[in-house]
Write a structure and sequence with these properties.
Blueprint lengths: L17 E4 L2 H10 L13 H12 L8 E11 L8 E14 L2 E11 L5 E12 L1 H7 L16 E7 L2 H7 L12 H6 L9 H14 L4 E10 L8 E7 L3 E5 L5 E12 L2
Antiparallel strand pairs: 1-3, 2-5, 2-7, 3-4, 4-5, 6-8, 7-10, 8-9, 9-10
Helix pairs in contact: 1-4, 2-6
Amino acid sequence: MSQDAVRELEPGQSLPIRDAVVTAERQAMYLENAEVDPALWGDIVDLSVLANDCILQTYPLRPKGMRGLHLGHRMVQRRPVRLGERLEMRGRVGTTGQMRKGKRVDYEIDFVDEGGTICVQAEMRSLQVDVEAVSSGGGGGYDGRTFYGGAAFEPVAEKHATAIRVMGYSGEFPLDKVHFEPEVAAELGLRAPIAQGLMSLTWMMGELAAAGGPINAIDIDTEFRRPIYWDDRISILAKGQTEFELMNQLGELCSIGRVAHLARGL
């Protein structure tokens, strides 16, 4: 790997402060490409859109030419955020560690409102990919372990991750060419471009919104176990409103979600 590609990120290192504003138009771009009706959210921000802002905040610290993969994401909402509301993002590097196919870097990010109150907190887990290690072993660096919760899970929705939808959802991330270009995906041992992991979170949040009642507070943690490709058809399975599993058409587990806390009513 080049010297740039192995640049060290130190735990506690600050991320550049960034403003985050989710407009109705911006939210609709994400949700419509994920086959979620924006009307489900009214004038409230879907947390999965703010999760995408976490990726944008890490861009200035990315080593030049580095390929990144998203391993998991936790979002904790303390109160609803309104469309058009301006939040200040204050982030830092969390723990880091070496994995077989690159370096794992975790980030901790606070979304602070104009009154100085933290209204949303995020934890993002990512992999700085060693392209040589990945291409020799395949698999893209994801954890491909199979996990299925069994009969307690019920199918609740079907999604189709087409190329148009994947590229539309990733419209704010032109540097992440793994969502757009087959050649880049192949470098990472992937058979085709892949959807952002956060598309899974958008699907889960859409199901929670459709289940009824505004979401006042939530703690949801997601893991992205297997890539979702351009042409995959995804089944969403749920255990009440506390657990989600997303499987592809081959019956392979792609993403999981766990809700530790959920409170409704504004």
